[in-house]
Amino acid sequence: MKRQHLIAAIFAASMTAAVTSCNSSCDAGGAAASQKDAALANIMTRTSVRDYTDTPIPDATIDTLLRAGMAAPTAGNKQPWSFIVVKERATLDSLAKGNWRPAAKAQAAIVVCGDLTKGFPGEGKDYWVQDCSAATENILLAAHAVGLGAVWCGCYPITERVDMVKTTFAIPDSIMPLSVVMLGYPAAPQDPKDKYKTENIHYGKW
User: Fold this and answer.
1) DSSP state of 98
2) Which end of the chain has a smaller Cβ tally under 10 Å, C or N?
3) 99, burial (CB in 10 Å: exposed 0-12, middle 13-18, buried 19+)
4) Phi, psi of 53 (to 5 degrees)
5) CA–CA separation, 83 and 80 (whole Å)
6) Is the peptide bond before 80 cis (omega within 30 degrees of 0)?
7) Which among 145, 137, 147, 71 has a CA at the least distance from the CA of 110?
8) Which of 42, 36, 8, 40 lies closest to 21 in space, CA to CA?
9) What are phi and psi of 194, to 5 degrees?
10) Residues 6 or more apart from 60 whose CB is under 8 A from it?
11) Integer Cα distance of 85 and 132 in angstroms
12) What ranges in 81-182 are assigned the alpha helix state H?
């Protein structure tokens, strides 16, 4: 069995065991442990999905993703994020002709934007990038948890992409598009990548 297939099998088994245990557990401690296992399995098995079926995404599911995005950590609780939900086929197709091919089959997209009027002054003015990146990752994890496939398409700081998105969605000057998350139900299973590398870890100092 290939390494990536083994990893996928292990994580899938972990997720299944966690959900089964959580459903059958009678005590709060067991349920909490199962929820922890399920949460970690969701993180470890998330992967970028670029090919989707034509099944539409319910509005309630999109709302769940937006709530997850806005649950992200934010410096000073500034919450400098705004979101544009895209479901129109013509608009998605126009994005595909621009920079992002996954939009051609995506059933929806979420544009994650930073509100530059809600940030910190001075050197902290770019914390919105970190906040909106955290929101984007939360959306990706929530999408995976509800059975959707998603991929993070970068926008900021590439000027051409920023200008295209701003023009497409009539975004004002004070708002900066950071990312576009393409969404849809996966057309095929995806194997997660094993990105753990011990050489990237340092203890105490470099």
Assistant:
1) H
2) C
3) middle
4) -80, 175
5) 10
6) no
7) 137
8) 36
9) -90, 105
10) none
11) 15
12) 89-98, 127-145, 159-169
Calpha distance 177→98 (Å, rounded): 15
- What's the pLDDT tens digit per position in 37-88? 999 999 999 999 999 999 999 999 999 999 999 999 999 999 999 999 999 9
Q: Which stretches does DSSP call E strand in the chain?
A: 81-86, 108-115, 149-154, 175-184
Inter-CA distances, 88 with 16, 45, 79, 132, 179, Å: 35, 29, 27, 24, 18
Contact 34, 22 (CB under 8 A): yes
- Read off the pLDDT of each residue in 163-192 and give the average, rounded to a whole number: 97
Are 153 and 179 in contact by the 8 Å Cβ rule? The answer is yes
Q: Provide the pairing of β-strand 175-184 with 108-115.
A: antiparallel
CA torsion, ordered 43, 182, 108, 79, to nearest 10 deg: 70
Structure pTM? 0.85
3-state helix, strand, coil in the chain (%, to 5): 55, 15, 30
pLDDT tens for each residue of 170-184: 999 999 999 999 999
Which residue has 């497409």 as its token pair?
A: 168
Q: Which helix (H) or strand (E) holds 60?
A: helix 59-69
